[in-house]
Sequence to fold (483 residues):
Amino acid sequence: MLFSSMTFIYVFLPIVLLLYLITKKELHNPILLIASIIFYAWGEPKYLAIMLLTIIINYFGAIAVDKYKTHKKLALILTIIGNLGFLIYFKYFNFILDNINLMFHSHISVINVIMPIGISFYTFQAMSYLLDVYKEEVKPQQDIYKLALYICLFPQLVAGPIVKYHDIAEQIEDRDVSFEKVDLGVKRFIIGLSKKVLIANTMALAVDKIFVQDPHTFSHGIAWLGAIAYSFQIYFDFSGYSDMAIGLGLIFGFRFLENFNYPFISKSMSEYWRRWHISLSTWFKDYLFYPVTKGISESKFIDKLNNIIGRKKASKIVMFLSFAVTWFCIGIWHGANWTFIVHGLYNGFFVFIEGITKWSREGKTKLIRFIQHCYMIIVAIIAFVIFRSDSIKYAWDYLMNMFGLLHLNKENFVYTNVYYIDNVLIIMLFVALICSVPIFKNMLYIKNKYGRAFINIWLLFLFFLSTCYIASGTYNPFIYFRF
Fold:
């Protein structure tokens, strides 16, 4: 079920919210758990069993980690294998077979494996809980229904944000629902819905027209248009979904951490990744980067390297290896394609270089800060082209076109520029640019009554316009559903 669907907005959500508000506090968790299961089963009932098995595996795995202190690492490893087993099979099995066939010139048959929606998100949430128990930051949840609610809570079930268990454990046990939270949550939901339906979907129409074409068949300007439009599409699609998830959380008394913080105003890729998909980058930092860095630093190989080349140089090698492992995993987390792996390593390369050269430090003058910002925008747009492309070759040709390095013959152009560009797209590009900077960041917290009245009227208009677009059957996918 999509948040941006008439069924969710006008049927599912009102019924669940009404039941939630008229019942006793003791029934709030059961209502949300049942609603979450229905929400997930609505689209893919046959894969509900995978999510339920994930809950059971992590419930007993965490208890074993806590109970058997002398074998806690073994219990942790076995439970992680159980988690990753589902993920690897459903998400990467065919990708692995394809690459085996390519490397060894074999002909192993690829089977039709369909990935369950949201498996990457709820698997990582489950492992967050397991690792928090292992690190003794939290106690294992004895009530399997409360753990199930954490893993499959519908506001952030299928596309995040990835909520860490230690951030929400107390809220699962006890939380309050107030008019202020519901009011703020509804407004946040409308903002997210508008970003998704009005901006991201408009960008998607142009992007899909461009990226389906051979890069030799459109001009350099159209190549840049497609890259910029996709950058806006993925940002407003995913941040819009996150806004809706955070808003829904507030409606039901939960406070989720922010997932986006205006990443396009960054002045380095390091800052960009502190502002973009924050829940994913912090997950990998806390649960992979730090442990990997510690493990490599304490290895005998690094001890010997310290004696040969010195501690300072050896520490850079440790950081390089840690970055390589982490960003490879961030890349492949997004999908079973070499474009995602290259996208991850590409981003990691710039973050690493910025770290060792101190480029990520903000410039002291406006000119330097402007140069830093331009650099970040170009690097990020290139990354999005790689991310959007179906193959490495397509990404390469597309980038060559963007930078004028691809030979073009206008006789091969399939469509004129008018096919790709219309007035609605031009208007939405301008709107997207304005909404990418924190001009309206605090508009929901205006205290002036006239200002609040204006914001409320404006949000009602956006909600009406968005639902009209949805009702008309406007193109309405979510990019991150496939991750």
Notes: The chain is about 70% helix and 0% strand. The two ends are 16 Å apart (CA to CA).
